[in-house]
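Friendly challenge for the regulars: who can give me the structure tokens for this chain first? No prize, just bragging rights.
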Amino acid sequence: MHALVTGGAQGLGYATADSLIENGWEVTLLDRNKDSLRNAASTLGCNFFFADITDHNSIQSFFNSLPKLDALVNNAGIWVPQHIESMSVSDQTNVMNVNVLGTVLCTKYALPLLRNSEQGAIVNVSSLAAQTNSPGLGLYAASKSAIETLTKQWAVELAPIRVNAVAPGLIITEGTSENYRGEAGQLRAKAVPLGRVGQPNDVAEAIAFLLSESASYVSGQIISIDGGLGAGSPQR
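First reply, four minutes later:
Bragging rights claimed.
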């Protein structure tokens, strides 16, 4: 079984690839960060491809070169926190292009391969931000809301390919670690019903489940990996 993980050079993508490999998958990482990508692929012992997921021709060519694909993890994404009154249209256009258009392009060109698989599956990576309406996130939350809508749409449109999404809450990765240092990290952990901030592996294991035969009757679902934060906070 062969899975492609976009944004696989670090963070959630790397953890997902690691989990899948441990479960016997062949994995290819796709990322635009050449150095991190090479290091990740070398450490994991897997294939890799350098590309920007918004580059239509590059993505089409890459998928056309693959002989087989059973699973696609649309993990690559960016965020540029900005309030609307000082928002850079250029920055937020880039957010939408990467998070939404990039996911669309990868899915579009993966389809012929996934349709040839007996267990074709897609997992999109959303965010709890799509539900919490937090201020100052620019178009990041809106882009993830679009991902959740597309997940449900594609679950109907692309069946029997299974399409699901995970929505991580507070997760410590290379890109978010500064937000969890010292007292800030303790306060964030207290806001989570389970009393801790999540790790990349928490999300990776859920993605591995959704791609497995154990989830063969699961499609069109958005699964929050948030320690219960989406249900509410124990803080008063």
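The domain at 2-227 is CATH 3.40.50.720 (Rossmann fold). The first strand starts at residue 2 and ends at 6. Your move, everyone else.
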